[in-house]
Amino acid sequence: MSERANQLISDILRRVHEAIVENNVTYEEYQAAKQWFIDVGAAGEWPLFGDVFVEHVVEEQAFSNRSGSQGTILGPFHLPDAPLLDAPFELPHRPDESGDRTRVTGRVTDVDGRPLANANLDIWQADAEGRYSGFMPGPPDGNLRGQVRTDTDGRYEYVTVIPGPYTIPLDGPTGRMTAAAGWSPWRPAHIHLIVSAEGFEPLVTQLFIDSSDYLDTDVAGAVKPELIVHPEPVGDGEFAVSYDFALAPARTPAIA
Ligand code: DHB
Ligand code: FE
């Protein structure tokens, strides 16, 4: 028996019971909700549901006092072991990859602005149609996933395409719930990153494209103003984004 489990489970159930009383929930609604829980499991959508509707509050709560750059949700589409890229640091992509070609550059520092050499940036994103490789039909395995390291000055760069907005699957139970409530099922266009360096707290974050639709209505509630970037046209139809990351010190000092 864990006191923590008792406290948390009791509190969540009490709030569900209160919602039932306050909204006069009927037997029909209870049976429909029960079937919906079953459907979410059968469709394998619990990770999707959790990351869309719950994770953002956990992230805000867990890191409200962390110094350095803002993080946001991890989401369900990270895959470990993306290839470490060499110059010219292009994320793997199809020869005819659609979307505006963009060079992302910046620095990784500590919270006092000291450069962190050999920091790692693990990058993943949807293609211009909002599809993630490894999870959705379309992009080949490994598409638009890669890692880069900072140089001795803490500088990094990589080349990618601007992703498209993403909609949660509309035909599954999570999409049906979203439609029933009248909410937008879209996430604005974003690039995921995990920035890490020895002795620092890993930063799980996303960069949001300022020209994207849905910045104000992200179904996953994960947009923060500090994470919105403006791709600058640099000629030949290409764009550039600059973004610096400051990492907080690791909470547990490394054991020597
Ligand atoms: C989901 C998708 C994302 O691209 C993301 O960043 C977070 C959540 C999702 O569908 O659950
Ligand atoms: Fe995403």
From TrEMBL:
<keyword id="KW-0560">Oxidoreductase</keyword>
<feature type="compositionally biased region" description="Basic and acidic residues">
    <location>
        <begin position="91"/>
        <end position="105"/>
    </location>
</feature>
<dbReference type="Pfam" id="PF04444">
    <property type="entry name" value="Dioxygenase_N"/>
</dbReference>
<comment type="similarity">
    <text>Belongs to the intradiol ring-cleavage dioxygenase family.</text>
</comment>
<feature type="region of interest" description="Disordered">
    <location>
        <begin position="85"/>
        <end position="105"/>
    </location>
</feature>
<dbReference type="InterPro" id="IPR015889">
    <property type="entry name" value="Intradiol_dOase_core"/>
</dbReference>
<dbReference type="Pfam" id="PF00775">
    <property type="entry name" value="Dioxygenase_C"/>
</dbReference>
<dbReference type="GO" id="GO:0008199">
    <property type="term" value="F:ferric iron binding"/>
</dbReference>
<keyword id="KW-0223">Dioxygenase</keyword>
<keyword id="KW-0479">Metal-binding</keyword>
<dbReference type="InterPro" id="IPR007535">
    <property type="entry name" value="Catechol_dOase_N"/>
</dbReference>
<keyword id="KW-0408">Iron</keyword>
<dbReference type="InterPro" id="IPR050770">
    <property type="entry name" value="Intradiol_RC_Dioxygenase"/>
</dbReference>
<protein>
    <submittedName>
        <fullName>Catechol 1,2-dioxygenase</fullName>
    </submittedName>
</protein>
<dbReference type="InterPro" id="IPR043029">
    <property type="entry name" value="1_2-CTD_multi_dom"/>
</dbReference>
<dbReference type="GO" id="GO:0018576">
    <property type="term" value="F:catechol 1,2-dioxygenase activity"/>
</dbReference>
<feature type="domain" description="Intradiol ring-cleavage dioxygenases">
    <location>
        <begin position="104"/>
        <end position="132"/>
    </location>
</feature>
<dbReference type="InterPro" id="IPR000627">
    <property type="entry name" value="Intradiol_dOase_C"/>
</dbReference>
<dbReference type="GO" id="GO:0009712">
    <property type="term" value="P:catechol-containing compound metabolic process"/>
</dbReference>
